[in-house]
């Protein structure tokens, strides 16, 4: 008994949104007999008078005004010829008749743009995995976002403004794609491409980032979404992205002021601007990343009336390293101010937040602001460090290069990037272990030590 791909697609279209299609059975001499059809605005399996009429209707209703041709043999699971992005009716019909002469069954489906800012992926066993700019087979590649189903759905709903039409089932595997523009047979935002039923085994979410989706919306935006979903105080944030429409999340802080923060695809400590007060985000992007290589979005974040601000990391001995300063912490993070002694109750509340974050996500580092009653999370990143007192990055080196901690951050970044193989770094002077200077050095992965400056 043969397996008819179009029959399976027709069954799926009974309760799920699928890409619009029409299928044909080959007849002698290149003839075509319509089998199944799902085109918006027409009844299920509407019978057109001729193949030309069916394909013309499909082209007209396609968001991209183009179609693909898939060919198959019911008794042969191997893929046959596939044609992508056809736009001319005569060309499409000519190819259909040519393939039909070889006895191939044919499916003509609308071309779906996977580069439209949406995502594709798989739901299976209580886990949802997805990535932008790809097909559902993205789950076979590294860097796919992998989240518990409920968390992933809340994340996607926040970012795209609609809840995807997806449901978890213990014995079902669904391949899907999500699109900012409604499309498909049912004209919704979620397309289902394939459904497998039967025992699927267990699956577990990786829940880690950076991943391809966090790079898509900006690492800072993704981290804050994770903290917000956990129920921790995150300031009201509007994300103005390059690839997705603006979206927002978080809580009001009681302040009418804002911070504008650039959100690179992956962490770039202190490299791009953070500005208090509103600035033109488009001018900011044009000035700092004109080719769109590094910054995925700009965040407009409600300011927090700050009594203390700082950062926290997991140290090399498993301890929490919590540092900060009185008032706003932007100068401290840039290494312009040294950490100050923090009140015990502030340290206790930051450590409590740290415990919640690490319990949910594993080792993290985050920036915080204390408003006199609670700790707000203003940045969150995954990862542990091996930093201990006097050592930013453990290890030995063939030679050591000394650099003054008082230099501007960009000069320190440049010096680190230009280190020769086998070289380590000695930073002379005091810096915060959680500052951007320390982050830049740790990111390079070279052995790095701290040395106090000798008073003159």
What is the number of helical segments per DSSP (H or I, 4+ residues)?
Answer: 11
The helix content is: 10-25%
**What is the total domain count?**
4
Number of strands: 23
What is the SS-derived class? alpha+beta
Average pLDDT, all residues: 91
Beta-strand content: 25-35%
Q: How can the largest sheet be summarized?
A: 5 strands, antiparallel
Mind telling me the C-alpha Rg?
Answer: 27 Å
CATH architecture of the largest domain: 2-Layer Sandwich
Q: Identify the overall geometry.
A: elongated
Ends: how far apart?
Answer: 90 Å
- Give the spatial strand order of the biggest sheet: 2-1-5-3-4
CATH topological fold name of the largest domain = D-amino Acid Aminotransferase, Chain A, domain 1
Q: Which class of the largest domain in CATH terms? A: Alpha Beta
Poorly predicted regions: none
Characterization of this structure:
The structure is a single chain. This protein has 456 residues and is α+β, with helices and mostly antiparallel strands. The longest helix is centred in the C-terminal third of the chain and has 18 residues, at 344-361. Helix 2 (51-61) crosses helix 3 and helix 10 packs parallel to helix 11. The protein is elongated and about 90 Å long. The strands form 5 sheets. Strands 2-1-5-3-4 form a 5-stranded antiparallel sheet. 24% of the residues lie in helices and 32% in strands.
């Amino acid at each position: 008994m043969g397996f008819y791909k179009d029959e399976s697609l027709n069954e799926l279209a009974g309760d799920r949104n699928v890409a619009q299609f029409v299928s044909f059975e080959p007849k002698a001499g290149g003839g075509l007999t319509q089998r199944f059809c799902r085109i918006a605005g027409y009844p299920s399996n509407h019978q057109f008078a001729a193949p030309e009429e069916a394909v013309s209707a499909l082209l007209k209703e396609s968001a991209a005004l183009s179609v693909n041709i898939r060919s198959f043999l019911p008794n042969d699971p191997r893929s046959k010829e596939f044609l992508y992005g056809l736009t001319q009716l005569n060309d499409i019909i000519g190819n259909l008749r040519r393939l039909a002469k070889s006895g191939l069954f044919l499916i003509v489906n609308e071309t779906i743009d996977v580069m439209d800012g949406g995502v594709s992926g798989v739901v299976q066993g209580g886990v949802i995995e997805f990535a932008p700019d790809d097909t559902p087979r993205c789950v076979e590649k590294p860097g796919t976002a992998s989240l518990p189903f409920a968390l992933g759905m809340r994340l996607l709903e926040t970012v795209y403004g609609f809840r995807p039409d997806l449901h978890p089932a213990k014995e079902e595997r669904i391949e899907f794609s999500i699109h900012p523009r409604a499309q498909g047979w049912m004209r919704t935002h979620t397309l289902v491409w394939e459904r497998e039923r039967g025992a699927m085994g267990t699956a577990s979410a990786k829940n880690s980032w950076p991943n391809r989706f966090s790079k898509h919306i900006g690492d800072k935006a993704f981290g804050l979404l994770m903290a917000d979903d956990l129920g921790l105080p995150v300031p009201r944030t509007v994300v103005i992205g390059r690839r997705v429409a603006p979206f927002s999340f978080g809580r009001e802080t009681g302040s009418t002021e804002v911070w504008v923060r650039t959100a690179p695809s992956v962490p770039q400590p202190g490299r791009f601007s953070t500005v208090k007060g509103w600035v033109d985000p488009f001018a900011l992007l044009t000035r700092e990343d004109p080719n769109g290589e590094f910054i995925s979005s700009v965040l407009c974040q409600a300011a927090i009336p700050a009594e203390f601000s700082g950062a926290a990391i997991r140290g090399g001995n498993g301890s929490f390293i919590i540092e900060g300063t009185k008032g706003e912490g932007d100068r401290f993070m840039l290494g312009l101010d040294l950490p100050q002694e923090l009140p015990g109750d502030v340290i206790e509340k930051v450590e409590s937040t740290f415990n919640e974050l690490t319990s949910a996500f594993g080792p993290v580092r985050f920036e915080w602001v204390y408003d006199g009653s609670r700790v707000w999370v203003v940045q969150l990143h995954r990862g542990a460090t091996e930093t201990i007192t006097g050592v930013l990055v453990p290890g030995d080196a063939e030679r050591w290069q000394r650099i003054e901690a008082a230099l501007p951050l960009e000069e320190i970044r440049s010096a680190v990037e230009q280190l020769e193989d086998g070289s380590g770094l000695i930073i002379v002077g005091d810096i915060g272990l959680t500052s951007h200077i320390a982050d830049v050095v740790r990111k390079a992965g070279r052995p790095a030590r701290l040395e106090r400056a000798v008073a003159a």
